[in-house]
Design a protein that fits this description.
Blueprint (H helix, E strand, L loop, with lengths): L8 E7 L2 H13 L7 E5 L9 H4 L2 H6 E3 L1 H8 L9 E6 L3 E6 L1 H10 L2 H4 L5 H7 L4 H12 L3 E7 L4 H10 L3 E6 L19 H4 L4 H18 L2 H15 E3 L5 E4 L4
Antiparallel strand pairs: 1-6, 1-7, 2-5, 2-6, 3-4, 4-5, 8-9
C-alpha cells in the first residue's frame, strides 16, 4: 500500500470503451492517485492474443493474479500500470480481467463465498464494499454486456474533483462509497490480525499461518503485495480443502 496516501472513499464508474479506461487511468495517475488504489474490471479487452486462449486454462482462471506487465502486453498498456492483474471466473458474469486491489478482493471471495454460493456474484462483493444493491446490479449487468468498471480510492476532500474528472472522461453510473477496498498486509504480516478480512475469514488458524509464512517469503523476494497474496493462496490450496462453511480447514492427506 502506498505510504502516506490517505484513501477514505471509493469512487466507481462504468465506461463503454477500453480507450476511455486507458485515458482515465493516466489522468488519475497524473493527479497522484497511486496505482495500487486503482481497480479495473472488464471482459472485452481488445488483444492480438485471443483472451479465450487464456480463460480456458483452469490454472489461470482459478490461479488468480499475475503481473500487470504480462497482461499489459496482451490487453492494453494501462494494465501494465496497475498491480495484481488476473483472469477470474465470476458467477453470472463469466471470466473477467481484473486489475488492482479489486482483483485481490475477488480472489479472496472466489476462494470462499462467491465460488460456493449459487446466489453470490459480483453484486454481493460490491455490496460488501458499501454499494447499494441496485447500483451493484447495474454494474454487474453492464460488465456482462462487455463494458468496463473502474474504481479509485480517493481522499474524501477531493471527491468533487474526481467526480468531474470521471464525468469529463465519459463515465456513467458514477457512485461514491465511504469504504475503501481491503488490501493485503501493508508490508510483512506479523500476525493473523494483519490479514485483510477477505483472507482471514476463509482460513482456519493453521491455514492462516501457512498463508502468512508463504506471503512473507514471496514479499521478501518480490516486494509485490499482490503476487505475495496469490502465493499465499496457492500454499493454502496445496495443503487444505474447504469445509462445509467455505473455510480452508481440512488438511489434505499426504501433504
Amino acid at each position: 500500500m502506498s505510504e502516506g496516501y490517505q484513501a477514505e472513499r471509493t469512487i466507481s464508474a462504468v465506461f463503454k470503451e477500453q480507450k476511455q479506461i486507458d485515458d482515465v487511468i493516466h489522468r488519475l495517475l497524473d493527479r497522484n492517485i497511486p496505482k495500487d488504489h486503482i481497480s479495473v474490471m472488464g471482459r472485452n479487452f481488445q488483444s492480438e492474443t485471443r483472451i479465450s486462449g487464456f480463460i480456458t486454462k483452469r490454472d489461470v482462471i482459478l490461479g488468480g493474479l499475475r503481473t500487470g506487465a504480462v497482461f499489459g502486453s496482451l490487453f492494453g498498456s494501462f494494465l501494465s500500470l496497475l498491480t495484481g492483474v488476473g483472469v477470474l471466473f465470476i458467477p453470472f458474469v463469466g471470466p473477467i480481467v481484473a486489475a488492482g486491489p479489486i482483483a485481490a478482493v475477488l480472489l479472496g471471495a472466489a476462494s470462499g463465498a462467491i465460488a460456493g454460493s449459487a446466489g453470490a456474484g459480483l453484486v454481493s462483493v460490491l455490496m460488501a464494499l458499501g454499494m447499494p444493491e441496485e447500483k451493484a446490479a447495474i454494474y454487474q449487468t453492464r460488465l456482462q454486456a462487455g463494458e468496463f468498471l473502474l474504481m479509485a480510492e480517493i481522499p474524501s476532500d477531493r471527491t468533487g474533483e474526481f467526480q468531474l474528472l470521471l464525468e469529463s472522461a465519459g463515465a456513467e453510473e458514477i457512485h461514491t462509497s465511504d469504504k475503501t477496498l481491503a488490501h493485503p498486509c501493508p508490508g510483512p504480516c506479523n500476525s493473523p490480525e494483519d490479514l485483510s478480512p477477505e483472507v482471514r475469514t476463509h482460513l482456519s488458524e493453521d491455514a492462516q499461518q501457512v498463508f502468512i509464512k508463504r506471503y512473507n517469503a514471496v514479499l521478501n523476494e518480490t516486494s509485490d503485495e499482490f503476487t505475495s497474496e496469490q502465493a499465499g493462496w496457492d500454499a493454502v490450496h496445496q495443503q487444505f480443502d474447504e469445509d462445509e462453511n467455505g473455510i480452508f480447514s481440512k488438511e489434505k492427506v499426504g501433504v
